[in-house]
Structure formats: structure tokens, C-alpha cells
Amino acid sequence: EHEDTDLLLQEQLEKQNYGAAAEDGTRCPSVSVSRISPTKRDCLVVAVLCFGNLINFIDWFIVPGILLDIQKYFGLSDGETGLLQTVFTLCYMLAAPIFGYLGDCYNRKIILGAGIFFWSGVTLGSSFITESHYRIFVLSRGLVGIGSASYSTIAPTIIADLFEEGKRTTVLSIFYIFIPVGSGCGYILAAGVAESTGDWHWAFRVTPCMGGLALLLLILLVPHRIQRRTAAHRALSISGTVRREMPDEMPDVHRTAKTTWCQDVGSLAQNCSFVCSSLGLTAMAFVTGALGVWMPLFLYRAQVVQGIVPPCLQESCNSSNSLIFGGITIGTGILGIIAGAEAARRLRKINNKADPLICATSMFISALCLYIALMVAQTNILSTFIFIALGELFLSVNWAVVTDILLYVVAPRRQSTAIALQILVSHLLGDAGSPYLIGIISNAVQAGNVPSLQWSFRSMQYSFVTCAFVGVLGGAFFLLTSFYIEEDREEAQR
């Protein structure tokens, strides 16, 4: 009965879609997908979105996976090396609000497709840059960040349109599992291709092929028109009734988003749960950004100090730490996101504040584990790997939970804008600056001491202590979120 109702709703709401519909009434080529059952259609859409998210984060972490080779190839200091990921993230975050606005106004499928095509093409082009053109390489990373912003901003809102709150948490968990999986695969793919070919440039020629496949799947399997989930739609779904005049009564999303965007931003700034949880996410982004870029290099320097591996003097450097760290990222990411979603699902039944409390607890534990990992790195590399894995595990617990907090404390009409603003803030104050900041601190420590392998390691160790402090700060913001979340959730429902 529910599926029949959805089919009737889809038929009645055909004019209301991801963006501006064609006014001439012509049907798009992918409309045949909409003729299958809504459940199967939604599964196909989610599968395509997850595959795109996988490729998106593989591209994010190709550079950290072969950071030692790139640093040696261009002759970079730690500060200049960190600038690569900082430029990427800055462009990503600055583009996110633009795509958030476009996602609320125009066809989301077209924006997603254009983003995939753009970042895949730029990634391929960057593989042909020579050592004398470091600035062009930096520029290419910034352009890839712009393409990635289109995907990360819009894809979660499509999932929010397709699923009610109960199922949405599960589906978002599946979607966000591909953040750590893609990140880990980025390390593994980059290190594996560089080692097998003897040339790190080939690592940038694999994901464009995957991006082409994702674009083809998007065109063929994702319907051009799927109704946005609005309050009226939810009410009709619950009652199981459809009225003929409903399309005319539904709000004009295109016009509303244009005329009230500034008011929406002001309203979000007054939403305490949204603001505090976004600051908590910012702390998460700061820590994950620094770890993602520098941890393989830190582990390499720790092993050099312990005499486990020799210094890199040959043409292609040892990338085994990237392979191990990539595996840790995949395993802890999957386990952490599943554990976080399941804990949230169970604890919500007994505590309405469960989500922010879960996030706060995991941040505090993660900060402690990372601090211990830094302290034992010089003497016991195995213990370092164990505590890094635990730190990443508890960080990963929060990914789907934080997004779900946003989706139920913000009204559906404002969700694309809210996600875009959250991306802007979390990256501006988080992982946009943390890789560069860690590199700058490392440079400063090395400059104040006699150059040596020992101080090369210690400079990175001292820099990473900043991450433990920021992790504790993030836990405090999530704890503060718990004081406001019930009131803001009720307001969003109204």
C-alpha cells in the first residue's frame, strides 16, 4: 500500500524535481527508471551515489598516499607540502555554498554529473605536470576540490529526499562508509600504482576512468525527476491520500530558494544545535585532515629513527606505511560508522540527546588515543599503529550521526544550504588549515634545532599534539549541542 501511494505521489508530483524542470513537458531519457518500484529505484540511486562518493574520496587522498614521492619530486619543505591539501580544501569549501544554492534551485543530477566530469578531467591532466611547475600542480588540486564540492554538497540531500528519518540514518551510514573506504583506497591505490609502475604520476590516471564509469551510471540509472521531500509530501505519505490540486499547492522551490536564501542563512545562524554540531564537526575535520595528510610520513620518520627502515634516497620511496594506514582507515571507518549508527539507533529510544552525547564521548576517547600514539611512536611502532587505529575508529563513529543531526534540526527546505554552510565552516576552520599548520609548526621546530633525523621526527611529533587538543575541544562542542537539540528538533518539525 505504501509503494502504491508513493507511485501515485510521484505521478502527481512529476513537475517538482531536483531542480528546474523542462517547461515543454518532454520526458527525459532516464524516465524509464521511474517506472520500476520506488524501493528498487531508490536502491539504484543510492548505489550510484555511493560509488561516486568512493571515487570522490579516492581523489582526495591520492596525494597523501604518495606524499613522500611528491615532496622529493618537487623538492618541498613540510610547509609547502602541507599547502597542497590546504589549497584543495580551501577551494572545496569556498565552492560548497555556491553548489548548495545551485542544488536548492536547479537540477541536482546535472550538477552532480558536471562535477564528476570536471574533477576527473583535472585529475588526469595533473598527472602530466613536470617538477618545474609546482604551482600548476597546486592549482590542479584546487580545481579538483571545486569539483568534489559539487558532489559532497548535493548527494546527501538527494538521500534525504528519498528516505524518511528512520531509514535515512541507515542509508546515510552506508553512504558515509565510503568516506573512509574511499580515503583508504586512495592511499592503497596511490602507493600500489606508484610502486608497481615506479612512477607516482600513474596514480593520477586511474580514478578518471572510474569517474567516467560513475558519470555513465548517473546518466543511465538516476532519474532526471524525483520529487523533493517536503513537509506536505511527508504528510500525504503518512495519510496515504493524493489530491489532484497538490502540485499547484506545493511550494515553488526554485523561486523560494532565490528569494529567501539570506533569511535561511540568518535562521541557521540562530539554530544552536546546528552551530554547535558544526563546530564539533570542524574539530573532527581538523584532526582527520592533519592525520590524513601527515600520518604516513610521520610513521616513516618514526621507523627511520628506530632503524626499522633506511632514509629515502632512491628514486621511488617506500610506501608501505601508506598501504598499512589505508587499510586501517578502511577497517576503522567501516566499523566506526556502523557502530555509531547502531548506537544512535538504540540509544535514541531511551535518550533524546543520544546523538550529540555519542559524538562527544567518541571525540574525547579519540583525542586520548591519538595522544598516546604520539608519545609511544619513538619506542614502539606496533603500539603506535594500534592507538592510531583506535583514534580513527572513534573519529569515524561520528560521521553519519553528525549529518543526521543536521537533517533533523534543519527544515527540509534549508538542508542543501545548511550542508553547504557546514562544509564551509568545518573546512575553513578545520582541515583547510590543519595540514599547512602542522607543516609550518614542523618547519619552525626544525629551524630551531640542528638538522637531523631525530629532529625531523620530533618536529612532526610536537606538531601533532595540536590535534589531541582540538579533539578535546570538539568533544566539548558536541556536549554543548546536547543542551539545545530537543528544542531545535521540535522547531524544525514545526
UniProtKB/TrEMBL annotation:
What Gene Ontology cellular component terms go with this record?
Answer: membrane
**Compartments reported by the entry:** Membrane
Could you tell me the keywords of this UniProt record? Membrane, Transmembrane, Transmembrane helix, Transport
Using the UniProt record, give the first listed, main subcellular location.
membrane
Q: Where are the transmembrane segments?
A: 43-63, 83-103, 110-130, 136-159, 171-190, 202-222, 279-302, 322-344, 356-378, 384-411, 418-442, 462-485
What's the protein's topology in the membrane? Multi-pass membrane protein
Q: Name one GO molecular function term.
A: transmembrane transporter activity
Name all Major facilitator superfamily (MFS) profile domain ranges.
45-489
Task: Give the source's domain of life in one word.
Answer: Eukaryota
Matching entries from PANTHER family are given as: PROTEIN SPINSTER HOMOLOG 3 (PTHR23505:SF3), SPINSTER (PTHR23505)
Q: Which family does it belong to?
A: Belongs to the major facilitator superfamily. Spinster (TC 2.A.1.49) family.
Protein name per its UniProtKB record: SPNS3 protein
